[in-house]
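pinned: reference chain
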Amino acid sequence: MTAFKWSVRGRRNLAALVCGALAAGGLAAAGVTTTLTPGTANASSHREAPLISGQPQFDNTDVYAFVSPDKPDTTTIVANWLPFEEPAGGPNFYRFASDARYDIHIDSDGDAQGDLLYRWTFHDQLKNGDTFLYNTGPVTTIDDPDLNITQTYDLELVKLKNQHVISNTKIADDVPVAPSNVGKASMPDYKALRAQAVHRMEDGSSVFAGQADDPFFLDLRVFDLLYGGNLSEVGKDTLKGYNVNSIALQVPTEHIRQSKGQPVVGIWSTTHRKNASGDWTQVSRLGMPLVNEVVVPLKAKDKFNASSPWNDADFLPFVTEPELPKLIEAIYKIPAPKTPRDDLVSVFLTGVKDLNQPPNVRPAEALRLNTSIPPTHKPKRLGVLDGDNAGFPNGRRLTDDVIDISLQVVEGELLGQKNDLGDAVDANDQHFEKKFPYVALPTSGSNGPLADGQNGGNRSQLQGGAALSASEAGNGKLVAVSLASAGAGVVLVGLGLGWWRMRRRSKGWV
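pinned: its structure tokens
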């Protein structure tokens, strides 16, 4: 295979500009009955489209695919949902939707149709409905009786031919989901707890579902008039401290590629929701990052998410005549590359020739991975742009800086218009794990961005109440004081209602 390499230079933070608007996005998919036909869809990614922002459980934020660094004969796929999880967001912490199908599609021959589909469906369990607590004591095991609200999932493998189901096999049954990381008192060793949610399957695959630190890193303040209007609002990872719900799958590569001679696979994810009539409707679709955010205009976003990858020619003009470079030229006077942009077609729709483009490829938005390229021991954050062919846009690793890479490409890097654009956020705030599922541990409710705010810190008393010693609190007096205060509040409310009713009667309002 011919090595494919793009040049790299030092970076100028000048152009943090609209790169934040490139916040993780995508496309591609369908639901399975006897044929694959998606229903109406409503957006995907980190709140990038208006309708899905009200359905976070169904909102796919990012897809990653890479040759496993510690098991190079396998491929790992990670797909995330439910953006901006505030770690302390109880008492209803973060669950996958039980009326959804979470799918990962794999195209092994480049025709923009899935050949394999991995499908997760989730089930809720409630131990005690008479408490408001997510957990009623410290949780040390995945089946701990103190974990009051739990989820499990089934995993199916669907084999397809021309969008018709050839076979449907349940390959995992009733597997536990790692719970949300409530806090250090509730889950004193969350790492050990989450490890129990990694499930090994008979075919050599591994699967995981649960909470994780959001691996996407960028500065989202682009929406404040392009970083404050004067580039003063750059360099901050605005997803720091927030979590996502993550699904990870590690499979022997030979199970998903067509052959050693054709090792490129296309990967995307979808979410389907059951509607009132019992039919399944596609509501989220995601493969390559950034396409839905900055390539597809507002008028077409919902259609884009409702469509299937084999129909992506409908959106070709948005790729060949992109809006973003024109905006950058208007605001920052950086000349926009000439159109049509065939270079962007290769990056986002077909894969790059001699890198990750399958033969006879049908243009479609999918994350394309050449599984024959071995992982590198020291990944470079700019991936192929810095000569690291194991990185984005050849698949997507957790450490790849897709914002900087994509912004530089959009501004004409492949056309000879050299630039060093970026948002000054070069890495995730948390270190990724060295083994499956690789995603970083989620921030706990004890340490989230709101818990560490100006009102955080140790509190020795209830606000407006008397201070209690540690021994008093340990003896349960804190609970007694709280109950007494609550009782007094009820009495006051009762007296107030009584006075109000008497006043209504005296005024003849009744």
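why pinned: The two ends are 87 Å apart (CA to CA). The first helix runs from residue 190 to 195.
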